[in-house]
Amino acid sequence: MTTDSRTTDAAATATAPATTTASRKAPRRATARIALVGDRSPAVRSHQRVPGLLDALRRRHALPVEGYWIPTQDARSPGAVRGFDAVWLLPGSPYRSEAGALTAVRTARESGIPFLGTCGGFQHALLEFARTVCGLTTARHAENDPRPPEEADDLLIGPLACSLVGHEGRLTTVPGSRAEQLLGSRESVERFHCAYGPVPALLPLLADSGLRFTGHDSEGEPRIAELPGHPFYLATLFQPELAGDGTEPHPFVTALAEAAVTHAAQANSPAKSRFDEESPGWPVHSDSTAERIRTQSL
């Protein structure tokens, strides 16, 4: 007796294990390496916050990120951050090496590496742009290069009339900007811890060269800058790492991590190499100046 093939096929279908979306494992994403440029110190509160923020990004947002501290003195080599998926220039100025901080910013800007600069990172992002892009080679930061008031023509970052150390301030964002999109609002209240900020005189030259000031305080002073056309380039005079109690990353920090994960996926394609001879490889060796931070300690 012959067997109806349709019956056999139906039986096979009935006994085959069902394949559901839940049973399929999502492809594992490459771990994104974030260069934490700054002179790590237990006295800097934002530095204390970073391990917990990275842990929250992994656990609560499923973003596979690892952070590596790179002292500013070691960041003077252009290759120091070139192999990373993001660069975060953290607070803690005056930095031991202004040149190292500026080189890290320039490498991220020119190489399309996602960049976030906070507090001192904001100040030095503006300084790098002024010197490198605008040709203002003598532009200076008063904290690094103090001079008499009569020599103020090249002053880009100067003492704030009212210190913002330990203060909160209301910001208004520019409609359609990345800052507004990430915050989800035209207004926000942010935490500051700085005594220096941009001097208005030279800022139009930076704006004419493409840097966009997209967040201002109640007095109209710029507190957020971004660079259109760059994969992710954001700088803030406030410290997003101090938002809340540290268990939920600020939207700017989450966005940096998302951009880093995207960069890692692209950089791990067969056609590209993530590292050059000057960049710390994975894993970081004991003789490297870049140190992978641990979530349980600073």
Question: Could you walk me through the main structural features you see in this protein, from its secondary elements to its overall organization?
Answer:
The chain is an alpha/beta fold and about 300 residues long. It is about 30% helix and about 20% strand. Helix 3 links the parallel strand 3 and strand 4.
Number of helices: 7
Number of DSSP E strands: 13
Q: Which structural class best describes the helix and strand composition?
A: alpha/beta
Q: Assign a percent range to the helix content.
A: 25-40%
Strand content: 15-25%
pLDDT < 50 stretches: 1-23, 270-289, 294-298
- In one word, what is the shape? globular
Average residue pLDDT: 82
SSE string, helix = H, strand = E? HEHEEHEHEEEHEEHEEEHE
Distance between the termini: 77 Å
What are the key terms here?
alpha/beta, 298 residues, single chain, three-stranded mixed beta sheet, 7 helices, ten-stranded mixed beta sheet, globular, disordered C terminus
Task: Give a topology summary.
Layout: H1 5-15, E1 32-37, H2 45-59, E2 65-70, E3 86-89, H3 98-111, E4 115-118, H4 120-132, E5 140-141, E6 155-159, E7 168-173, H5 178-183, E8 187-191, E9 196-198, H6 203-208, E10 212-216, E11 222-226, E12 233-236, H7 251-267, E13 291-292
Parallel strand pairs: 1-2, 1-3, 3-4, 4-12, 5-6
Antiparallel strand pairs: 2-13, 6-9, 7-8, 7-10, 10-11, 11-12
Helix pairs in contact: 3-4
